[in-house]
Amino acid sequence: MDAVKELQERMLKEAVVINQQVVLLDAVLNHQVDPALIQEMGREFAARFRDAGVNKVLTIESSGIPAAYATAYELGVPMVFARRKQTLATDPDVWQERVPSFTKGIVTDILISKRFLGKHDRVLVIDDIIANGDAVRGLLNIIERAGAELAGLGVVVEKCFQEGARSIRERGVRVESLVKIRSLENGIEFED
């Protein structure tokens, strides 16, 4: 199975374009998950970053978890996810960053236990969709404060008509996107 081609075909069949800025991928990526497709995505990200010295895969709950897990599994390294809520069981010693959510229209805190991210880590960030890039920038800030090293960013779906991935690349970060959407004006239009 070619993960990229399969993902594009599934998006064309099952995604719902809400408006020129928002595409709903619930049936494909972030509500209903196809384990075989997700595992193929993990293989693809692992192949792209296999020589990057990654010892940890990082994402934000919840939609990024399946692709990050599959990638970590394929690389044979742990996966860590940033929590969006502090609970009674949350480690009090955390890296924390406030980030706006494009799709939710709110600002939340993301939290990562300092036990799971530190100066000995070389981190690959995996995200499901990148629009404005605020969540990823929050993770990059935490990685920097933790003294960890960033190996790169893997994105399942990049919305090229928004600033996110471009602004991350301008920081000198290696960004690998499986699928790039050029436009949502007349349905989903992919970049070549």
TrEMBL record:
InterPro entries recorded: PRTase-like, PRTase_dom, Pur/Pyrimidine_PRTase, Xanthine_PRibTrfase
Pathway membership, UniProt: Purine metabolism; XMP biosynthesis via salvage pathway; XMP from xanthine: step 1/1
Binding site for xanthine: N30, K159
Highest taxon in the source lineage: Bacteria
Residues that coordinate or bind 5-phospho-alpha-D-ribose 1-diphosphate: A131, N132, G133, D134, A135
Locations listed in the record: Cytoplasm
Glycosyltransferase among keywords: yes
EC number: 2.4.2.22
Keyword rRNA-binding: no
Gene Ontology terms, MF aspect: xanthine phosphoribosyltransferase activity
Family matches, as Pfam families: Pribosyltran (PF00156)
Reactions that this protein is recorded to catalyse: XMP + diphosphate = xanthine + 5-phospho-alpha-D-ribose 1-diphosphate
Residue intervals of the Phosphoribosyltransferase domain: 40-159
Main location as per UniProt: cytoplasm
Keywords: Cytoplasm, Glycosyltransferase, Purine salvage, Transferase
SUPFAM superfamilies: PRTase-like
Stated family: Belongs to the purine/pyrimidine phosphoribosyltransferase family. Xpt subfamily.
Oligomer and partners: Homodimer.
Role: Converts the preformed base xanthine, a product of nucleic acid breakdown, to xanthosine 5'-monophosphate (XMP), so it can be reused for RNA or DNA synthesis.
Protein name per the record: Xanthine phosphoribosyltransferase
Gene designation per UniProt: xpt
